[in-house]
Amino acid sequence: MALSTGDQSQAVRNGLRTKVLTLHSMNPRVRRVEYAVRGPIVQRALELEQELRQGVKKPFTEVIRANIGDAQAMGQRPITFLRQVLALCVNPDLLTSPSFPDDAKKRAERILQACGGHSLGAYSVSSGIQLIREDVAQYIERRDGGIPADPNNVFLSTGASDAIVTVLKLLVAGEGHTRTGVLIPIPQYPLYSATLAELGAVQVDYYLDEERAWALDVSELHRALCQARGHCHPRALCVINPGNPTGQVQTRECIEAVIRFAFEERLFLLADEVYQDNVYAAGSQFHSFKKVLMEMGPPYAGQQELASFHSTSKGYMGECGFRGGYVEVVNMDAAVQQQMLKLMSVRLCPPVPGQALLDLVVSPPAPTDPSFAQFQAERQAVLAELAAKAKLTEQVFNEAPGISCNPVQGAMYSFPRVQLPPRAVERAQELGLAPDMFFCLRLLEETGICVVPGSGFGQREGTYHFRMTILPPLEKLRLLLEKLSRFHAKFTLEYS
Amino acid sequence: MALSTGDQSQAVRNGLRTKVLTLHSMNPRVRRVEYAVRGPIVQRALELEQELRQGVKKPFTEVIRANIGDAQAMGQRPITFLRQVLALCVNPDLLTSPSFPDDAKKRAERILQACGGHSLGAYSVSSGIQLIREDVAQYIERRDGGIPADPNNVFLSTGASDAIVTVLKLLVAGEGHTRTGVLIPIPQYPLYSATLAELGAVQVDYYLDEERAWALDVSELHRALCQARGHCHPRALCVINPGNPTGQVQTRECIEAVIRFAFEERLFLLADEVYQDNVYAAGSQFHSFKKVLMEMGPPYAGQQELASFHSTSKGYMGECGFRGGYVEVVNMDAAVQQQMLKLMSVRLCPPVPGQALLDLVVSPPAPTDPSFAQFQAERQAVLAELAAKAKLTEQVFNEAPGISCNPVQGAMYSFPRVQLPPRAVERAQELGLAPDMFFCLRLLEETGICVVPGSGFGQREGTYHFRMTILPPLEKLRLLLEKLSRFHAKFTLEYS
Q1: Dihedral (CA of B159, B162, B165, B171) sign
Q2: pLDDT at residue A15, as a whole number
Q3: Residues of B in contact with A304 (CB under 8 A)
Q4: Does B73 lie at the interface with A, CB-CB under 8 angstroms?
Q5: How many domains does chain A divide into?
Q6: Assembly ipTM
């Protein structure tokens, strides 16, 4: 040790001492993590915003962050009832104020009664406030036409991401050829690839079918699974419905086929259903995996393991900043469920304001409540505008030569395919960039529009896409779509 | 595959199909995680509460959860100013209400201006709202007598736990004999042991000196390090100051010695300083690792890597439910810092209400503000009562035969040592329980007092302790301490 310390002192005198923690010595799994939704393109968008503030001249006056599903950042107003009840919970002195409706006060009192010390400032139990878990279970029952839900199978979380990571953590085991493999859709929401990389699990890609509006095809699941077996141990299947980034809404038949496949192949099912309120297309309807599973009866209903995730960040409320969410587990081994609770307890509890918000989302005002009319009107206005924006997006993109866009049946993104001229692809390769990253960076620099390249979500080799939210206000969205289409035409010309 | 499916179908007909995810097949690292603060004893406390509600007769009328530092659950009232500003942020319609002081309104407007869409409901950037990071940096500068802090080195988090886990994640690498080792104090706060187990890192124990009021002794660090080398690669040293569960406050000399040790042995320093506002004992003073490091000058100041953690959950405000916190990194490699930001971005952002709360904690009302007098009075009242409770705890326990308690210089727990008669130890072993777990369970069943056995934090072989918060209201705490002491006497008699 003396020698080594001496060497180090020498190095210090020469100013050569290296850090303990370097890119080289750090956790290699963390190094491999990628998360495109907030990746380099968003860093550049932040820089551009700063330059604009400093008065640097640009060909645009504002950066439009269409990279992330963040409704309120795009100007959507919070739902009045939700914020009234939350303000009352935060500052109960307001409970005597005449400026709040009675039902909002009752709801706040009910939530506070269920909090430690009657305060949002106390920790909750790690699985979340019992009353709220019960309300979530009732919500699920109503949603699923009366199929029972047990509050003991509901765990509140810090947004849906937190719960998804927790369930994936439970599933990861093995080394080398026996490492856990997890099937994820391509394109996917990059939380999945990032988490699997961090946990050292094997990502098994199954491709959604762009020609059929991004539908999930069970024969493709079979292909992916067969190919994966032998170099890992596939144990779980992730499904995102409605789709992110695809906007596809799965049919009931498809869901049944997926469940049969998971059952036969012994795969734990993770159903990311955070966009369950966001279905727009005529003929499309949200079917929960839980409901379909239960209606399939034996042997599926009583045995297939399932975790379904939901969130307060999406839907009509778009309360991303509060980080509310939950997971319902179905047919999970009781001892494993105890282990999950133990794991959650290390982080103490999900944010209590987010839990309170979730309670309001799962049990909104009833028709007889004073706040019902306004709540309903605000909710419908948001959903109707989202439906119009979904339609508009599809229309404008499909009118542009070289861009094709599947219908946005649900969720809040389009994932259009763009033709990129071979010379642009070559130029990107010279720059060491994915071709669609090159396109998106140029788009950002010249128009201020920030979208995420398809390569961040995964796509078939040789195809190029980007993900763009449909969240900007309708007229702004129209301008945006047109500007983007014109930029694509100009870009195509430039490299032809 | 056909055969295997056939076998499974047979098993299904026989009702023998096992779950995909079982205790046996799950992540073995997660299985090894332990977290005593919310462990089996707390599960039992919850059951007892339920039994009391159902009218089951018990030798007590309420369960007192002295297991966790949860001030508001113990009846501490939130600080008025914090909740006023938060309510205004949650429901900006209140900004026109005459019932809020002007400075609260100004603070709310300032925070909302810095939020996406001027709403707490938008995501923030993953490192936290820039304005709040700047306020945190200014707080650190004031705290450290003007030593500069760079907002770019401040990352907001979901409570301190989240940030601690993130930094530990970066540090974990290697396999077998080269696996990362992390030095942690014994007794420790079990977030550390739980996280290291989950990450597959090696926990290297160094013992605090109970005979010297739980002081940290650098020769013990040397012993622990030497012993660890050869079977792992020690790369980090965790320090908790003020101590949890010990209540010890480190001297400046001790901190200097720790920094020199970390520098010489090339260890990344993690300083858990969440109790920095909670110092009670005459002669004790909080010195931040950052300040001491900077004042030590070269070669330490410019090179020693350090991460310091703080939280909104403790201090005088006790806002645990909001999950606010931050980490300041010092001398961290720039590329690693980028990797940390990337890792945080996968979880999108810390809860925005918690960020807002943190902002108020780090920049409370100034003496010229209308809210100053009330804020200051409320703050002082909480801290003065905590100081009285710390003193009382030490007194009552030290008067009890067979219990000895070091001074509670800071933080919010006592960690008294209890003598357990040999026959009680034998009885515990027969039951397969740690002796102090046996004691704590009996205490809970007979008195309703819930404390955490020392074995959950670590202790020298053959010694027994428990951790108890000092948070119950003063008179209640007195009764509690006396009841606990009497129970110990009775327990000792029973097993003598």
Answers
A1: negative
A2: 57
A3: none
A4: yes
A5: 3
A6: 0.92
